[in-house]
Amino acid sequence: MTTPHEELLPTTRRALLHRIATAQAEGRAPSLMASVARDGELVWSGGRSMVDGHAPDENVQYRIGSITKTFTAVLVMRLRDEGVLDLGDTLEKHLPGTGAGEVTIAELLAHTGGLAAETPGEWWERTPGSTRPNLTDVLGEQPFKHPVGRRFHYSNPGYTLLGSLVEALRGASWEEVLRREILEPLGLDRTSARPEAPHAGGWAVHPWADVMMPEPVEDLGLMAPAGQLWSTTADLARFACFLVKGDERVLGAESLREMRTPSAPSQADNWERTYGLGLDLLRWEGLSLAGHTGSLPGFLAGLWVSEREGLAAVVLANCTSGPLVAAVAADLVKIVAEAEPRIPEPWCPLPEVDEKVLELTGPWYWGTQVLALRLVNDGGVEIGPLTGAGRRARFRPHGDGTWLGLDGYYAGELLRAVRRGDGSVSHLDLGSFVFTREPYDEGAPVPGGVDPQGWRGF
Questions:
Q1: pLDDT tens digits along 21-58
Q2: What was the pLDDT predicted at 268?
Q3: Which of 113, 124, 260, 358 could bridge to 103 as Cys pair (CB 3.0-4.6 Å)?
Q4: HEC readout, the chain
Q5: What is the arithmetic mean of pLDDT over 148-174?
Q6: Nearest one of 301, 300, 266, 269 to 281, comparing CA atoms
Q7: pLDDT higher for 295 or 270?
Q8: Is the dihedral of CA 85, 87, 89, 92 positive or negative?
C-alpha cells in the first residue's frame, strides 16, 4: 500500500518495469518511457532503450499525437464555462463559412459530426502543414461521410475546426492560447508545439527485419490542434491528474466530469469503449479509465487515468508501430491498483449540516421499491438501492433547495422535496417520479391514486 508521499513497494516497481521492458522488447521500440502518478504525485518512472545505459527519463520529450486533442478540448470547454459559446451552438455561429457549419461544437468534441477521418490529398501527418494553408484544404469539397450526429466517426479535421474556433474567439494563435491558458498555469514546462531538447527522434522499424529508418518531423500547420504537441511522461502524468481533480485556474472538476461522460455511441466493434468530450473512455479488466491515445509517424503515446483508484499512467515510444502503448498504460494502472490498493481517506463528519436536508435522509419508496437517500460529504445527496443493483445517482445542490442529477439514469434531472403547508415533507419529486416515505403512501399525490381498501391479503 502507498500514500501520495511514499514510494511504491519494490515488488510493484519490478512488476511495472517488467511490463514496460516486455513491451519495448517485443514491440521492438527504439525506446519506451512510462510514468505512474497516484493522487497527484509522480510515484514511479521507468525507461527502456535499445542502447544499454541510455534509457530516457521522465523529462525527455516525445511527440504525443492525438493526446493533443484533449488539450484542445479543454480550451473549448473554457470558452463554454466563460459563456462565450454553448456546446449546442453550431460551428457557423462562431466560425462562419467553413462548409461544415451545421455541426455543433459538442458533436465536434465527441467525433459525432459525420466529418471525414482524414484530410483529402496526401497523408497529412507526413507532409508539411504549408500544403494545407486554408480550412478548405483540410475539409475538401465533401467534408461529410455520415449524417451529422448519428454515429461516432473519429475525425482529425474536426479538431482542426475546433482549433480554428479557439483562435477566432480568442484573437490569438492556438499555440499561444494553449500556453497561456493550460501549459503555464499547470506548470507543464516540457510540453511544446515543437521539440525541445532533450527529445527522442522518431523511427520506423521494418516489419520483417530488425532494421529501422528515421521518420520526418513535420509542422502540421492548421492540423496542429489535432496532433502537434511534444511532451514528457512527467508533464502528461500531471495533466492526467488535472483531468480528474481540475484546477480552477484552467477548468473546474465539474466540467472535467462532463468531459469524462460518454457523449458518443459505443464503437460498434467494442462495447467497452466510447468517447466523451475530447476524452477516450475505456473499461479495462474491471477498471473505468479516461484518457487518450496518440500516434504520428515515429511516435506512439497512451495516457489513462482512473478516478476511483486515483491512478494515472503514461507510456510514450518512438516508433511508428510496435508496442500497444494504450494497453501497456492500462496495465500499469491495473498493476498498482491490484498490488497496492488505495488507502481511503479517514472518515470525518461534516463540519455542518442543514437540518432540512438531514430530515430527507433514509428510506424512500418509488412504488414498492425501497431506496435510500444519503447526504454525502461534498454537500450533495445520493439516491440508490439499499443493496444490489438498481438506479443510483449523485445530485449536486442548486442552492434553492433542489438538486441536479450528475450521473446514472437521473443525470440532468431535478430532485426537489415537496412540503406541506405546515413545512413537513410530503414527498420527493424526481423527473415526475414520486418518492414517498411509505409504499404508496395515501397521503401523497401518488400518480394513479391509491386503492382505498389499502393493503390486504389474497
A1: 999 999 999 999 999 999 999 999 999 999 877 889 99
A2: 53
A3: 113
A4: CCCCCCCCCHHHHHHHHHHHHHHHHHHCCCEEEEEEEECCEEEEEEEEECCCCCCCCCCCEEECHHHHHHHHHHHHHHHHHCCCCCCCCEHHHHCCCCCCCCCEHHHHHCCCCCECCCCCCCCHHHCCHHHCCCHHHHHCCCCECCCCCCCCCCCHHHHHHHHHHHHHHHCCCHHHHHHHHHHHHHCCCCCECCCCCCECCCEEECCCCCCEEECCCCCCHHHHHHHCCEECHHHHHHHHHHHHHCECCCECHHHHHHHCCCCCCCECCECCEEECCCCEEEEECCEEEEEEEEEECCEEEEEEEECCCCEEEEEEECECCCCCHHHHHHHHHHHHHHHCCCCCCCCCCCCCCCHHHHCCCEEEEECCEEEEEEECCCCCEEEEECCCCCCCEEEEECCCCEEEECCHHHCCCEEEEEECCCCCEEEEEECCEEEECCCCCCCCCCCCCCCCCCCCCC
A5: 97
A6: 266
A7: 295
A8: positive
